[in-house]
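Lab notes, practical 5.
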Amino acid sequence: MDLLIEKDTGQIKLSEYNLLVQDIEASSPSMMVDRRTVKNRSGVINAGAQFVSKTIKVAGSFYASSLLDYENRVDELNALLIDLDPYYITKMIPINDELYQYQIPGETTNDLNLLEIEHEPFKYRYKVQPDGDLNFQFNGKSDKGLFFKFTFYFITAEMPFGETIPKTLSINSDSISYDGTAKNSQLEYPWTIKLVADTQQSGTFTLMIGSKTFSYSSQTDIQSGDIFLLKGIETTKNGTNVNNYTNREHFVLEPRLDKEIPVTTNFQGTIQILNFVEFYK
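Output from the prediction step:
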């Protein structure tokens, strides 16, 4: 196992600092529930709830050749992980499944270098900030050097979910594949529906995605090449705000058992989702 750290300046894995990651645990997202009571009325009124944050624990060990090597390693990790600006972390999974196969004692004789095992990133990542100090604990000495265990805690900086890498998704059928396990609302995360007309058509159209229906109505025909951007809080046509011609609807990508979100529209042209991301609890 390994941990990939991604910043604007580049990316690096903890194994490149000779740290062996042995465990990565992510909590369920914490919830804030607004419950209200009414005098002389039994029970409570549920006034809504929201997910707040998610914590990620990373634990493992490493060897230092000397105390000086240890202190230098701590400085490097503080420089990497203790940052005022949020960054992304991704769990890295070993590609070689043979690592966990059963062996009888003495079946193999070569040492297993866990730091050299090839890994691949998991399907989602977390945007985080450090949660508390980086913890290091001395656990003895061997012919490999000074042995330390470490524990790092992170907390989600914005959305309390795992996030897939943003991409542009073309809608070419009557549904959108969504594998996420949490809702993704345009009012909480900046994704956009882009519509490009491929022919002259009526100035009125609707677009339904899941349970939400957006409508646009104008006396002026839509021309071939016109570009609409539906951002949830704003709709533009060729760069000009046209909120007054819409019902001001926003869209929400909601998890479904069949992992397909239905799409219906009478718009003639191409439709894309810009900055498409799936959220995982």
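Observations recorded by the TA: Residues 164-280 form a domain with the Jelly Rolls fold (CATH 2.60.120.860). The mean pLDDT is 93.
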